Amino acid sequence: MKLALKWELPDVLPASLDWAVEPEIVLPTGSRSAGIGGEGTDIAVPLRVSRQQERMLATAQLAWVKTPGEDAGWSAGALVECEPAPALWLGQELLHEALVPTEAFRRGSLGLRWEHSPRLLVFGALGRSRRRSADDDE
User: Fold this and answer.
1) Is the dihedral of CA 10, 15, 17, 120 positive or negative?
2) How far apart are CA 125 and CA 99, in angstroms?
3) Residue 22 phi, psi (nearest 5)
4) CA 20 to 30 Å from 25, out of 31, 32, 95, 134?
C-alpha cells in the first residue's frame, strides 16, 4: 500500500514538460522476494517528468528510496497512460529498483487512475516484481 502527495513544480522549466515531486510512504504488505510488496516501510522521493499529447501521457521518474535501518537506494522507471474516458486513465509502469548494492528488483504493473477533482485522485495497480541478486547469471 502506497500513500503519496504530489507537488507540481512551477512552469519555470521547459513548457512542453510537466515536472513534479511525489514523496511517498510504502507500507509493508507482503514479501518483496515473492513479488508482493515489501517487508519494511519504504520512504521514497521521486522526481517525475511528464508529457501529455491528447489522451496519452508519458512519465519518467528517478527516485531516492530509503528503508529505515538499511542503506538508501534508487529507482528509475517509465509509465505510459491513456485516457479512454474523461477522468479515467489506464496505464502500464515499468520500474527498476536498486535498494541495496547486492540486489535489484524489476517491477511491472498495470494500473487504473480516476481523477475525482484536480486535487484528488484514486489509483490502483496490479503487478509483479522480479528480484535479481549480484550473484545471478544473466
Assistant:
1) positive
2) 21
3) -135, 75
4) 134
Q: Which set of grid coordinates corresponds to residue 104? A: 535489484
Four-residue CA torsion sign, 80, 84, 89, 91: negative
Alpha-carbon distance 29 to 129, whole Å? 14
Task: Output the 3-class SS for the chain.
Answer: CEEECCEECCCCCCCCCEEEECCEEECCCCCHHHCCCCCCCEEEEEEEEEEEECCEEEEEEEEEEECCCCCCEEEEEEEEEEEEECCEEEEEEEEEEEEECCEEEEEEEEEEEEEEECCEEEEEEEEEEEEEECCCCC
Question: Is residue 134 left, alpha or beta, with left meaning phi > 0 and alpha meaning psi from -120 to 50?
Answer: alpha
Q: Could you tell me which residues come within 8 angstroms of residue 44 by beta carbon, excluding any fewer than 6 positions away?
A: 23, 24, 26, 63, 64, 65, 66, 75
What does the alpha-carbon distance between residue 89 and residue 34 come to, in Å, rounded to a whole number? 28
- Considering only CA atoms, which of 133, 120, 129, 119 is closest in space to residue 42? 129
Q: Kindly report, residue by residue over 35-86, the tens digit of the pLDDT.
A: 555 567 888 999 999 999 999 999 999 999 888 887 888 999 999 999 999 9
